[in-house]
């Protein structure tokens, strides 16, 4: 009744008062949008200079650098988590009953500018307890035909942080066969085109992880930085998926996405317009209901044309501001998991349940290889009618300066803006 009474007073007030009240409210909301929507790429108030500034990721990179220096001499593998024991001498370990066994596969190739692999691996393991580290098996695939050209090849930090390193060429005698392994079958050649090469790399890592008997295969690109609590949050998200009525109808869980594609997408205006009309009808109905109820007590004059025009003008103004603020800002998702069958990008971090790996590996190896690796996975999900989920918020950040490891590759703004808060 209080709301009805307020709306009734405003609509029956003199025009200047109505306009002043709504103008003040609109300006206040606009200022709030300026304050909070600057990191939403779908917002009119988006500030790219601030939004792309690394904050939390810069802290995590610094922490990773410190861990790498220690890993030059001390083991941090799942079999010998000595460095974890030094960092967590008395911390409570992960409940092994609740922890899923995860195998992470990371394909890597020399990049033209900065090499991100060391920090990628370090950020995955630097905060883990010994028991957490034992639940995570990390496989690195050096994708060059001549692995010696890759800066990570033969480095002590690599053999001290990764559990397994795969090569497409024979392992030199001076390297440990406990860590390095030669892949001699179903491998790409020097003439293999990029899309086919990437798909075969993914399939190779899936095959290696299946041999570990892991519950989940985690595909990770070599240019990410992970949050401190990424593994515990991943395990929590996987438990939520396992508790679904049909826990087998999804292909992967996304650990990274960019808000760039989650705005007001043009192909969804058929959804937005009915929502706008519904809100319009509800607001108009409340005003009319309030007037009708009050009309029983007092004599009311009919609405003037000016009042009707004023109502429509302000409704349009507030609707425009709503969309200007951005979808991620005005319709935020709660923490946990969210279904993301569309607009997810890219393959920086995808967790697949083990029961889908045989099918997916076969499809990745089979021609034609007409799509990029991450796009092909989306095609498979559509063909198999499998859902795709994402962690909210993201636990990975894409720190790669270039979207392609090829010289002159296109610059891509694949960034999770919420990760930095």
TrEMBL record:
Q: Which residues form the MGAT4 conserved region domain?
A: 99-254
A Pfam family of the record is MGAT4_cons
Q: Which domain of life is it from?
A: Eukaryota
TM spans (from-to): 20-38, 269-290, 311-330
**Sorted UniProt keywords:** Membrane, Transmembrane, Transmembrane helix
- PANTHER family, A to Z: POST-GPI ATTACHMENT TO PROTEINS FACTOR 4, TRANSMEMBRANE PROTEIN 246
- State the name under which the record lists this protein: MGAT4 conserved region domain-containing protein
Q: Which species does the entry assign this protein to?
A: Bionectria ochroleuca (Gliocladium roseum)
């Amino acid at each position: 009744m209080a709301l009805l009474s307020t709306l009734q007073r405003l609509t029956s007030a003199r025009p200047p008062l109505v306009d002043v009240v709504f103008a003040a409210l609109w300006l206040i909301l606009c200022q709030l949008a300026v304050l909070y929507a600057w990191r939403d790429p779908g917002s009119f108030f988006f500030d790219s200079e601030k939004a792309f500034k690394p904050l939390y990721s810069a802290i995590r990179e610094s922490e990773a650098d410190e861990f790498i220096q220690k890993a030059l001499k001390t083991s941090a593998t799942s079999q010998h988590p000595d460095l974890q024991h030094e960092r967590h001498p008395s911390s409570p370990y992960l409940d092994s009953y609740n922890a899923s066994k995860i195998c992470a596969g990371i394909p890597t190739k020399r990049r033209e500018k900065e090499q991100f692999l060391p920090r990628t691996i370090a950020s995955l393991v630097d905060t883990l307890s010994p028991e957490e580290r034992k639940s995570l098996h990390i496989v690195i695939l050096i994708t060059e035909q001549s692995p010696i050209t890759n800066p990570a090849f033969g480095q002590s930090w690599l053999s001290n942080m990764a559990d397994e390193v795969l090569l497409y060429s024979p392992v030199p005698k001076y390297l440990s066969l406990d860590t390095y392994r030669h892949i001699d079958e179903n491998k790409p050649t020097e003439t293999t085109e990029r899309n086919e090469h990437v798909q075969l790399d993914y399939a190779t890592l899936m095959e290696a992880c299946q041999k570990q008997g892991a519950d989940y295969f985690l595909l990770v690109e070599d240019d990410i930085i992970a949050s401190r609590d990424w593994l515990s949050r991943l395990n929590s998200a996987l438990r939520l998926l396992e508790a679904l009525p049909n826990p087998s109808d999804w292909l992967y869980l996304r650990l990274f996405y960019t808000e760039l594609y989650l705005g007001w997408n043009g192909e969804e205006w058929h959804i937005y317009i009915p929502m706008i009309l519904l809100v319009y009808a509800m607001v108009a109905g409340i005003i009319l209901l309030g007037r009708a109820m009050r009309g029983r007590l007092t004599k009311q004059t009919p609405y003037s044309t000016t009042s009707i025009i004023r109502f429509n003008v302000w409704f349009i103004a507030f609707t425009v501001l709503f969309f200007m603020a951005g979808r991620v800002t005005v319709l935020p998702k709660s923490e946990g998991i969210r279904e993301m069958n569309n607009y997810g990008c890219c393959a920086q971090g995808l967790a697949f349940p083990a029961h889908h790996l045989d099918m997916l590996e076969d499809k990745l190896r089979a021609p034609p290889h007409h799509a990029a690796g991450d796009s092909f996975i989306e095609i498979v999900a559509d063909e198999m009618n499998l859902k795709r989920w994402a962690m909210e918020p993201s636990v990975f950040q894409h720190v790669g300066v270039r979207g392609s490891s090829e010289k002159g590759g296109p610059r891509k703004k694949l960034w999770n803006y919420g990760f930095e808060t």
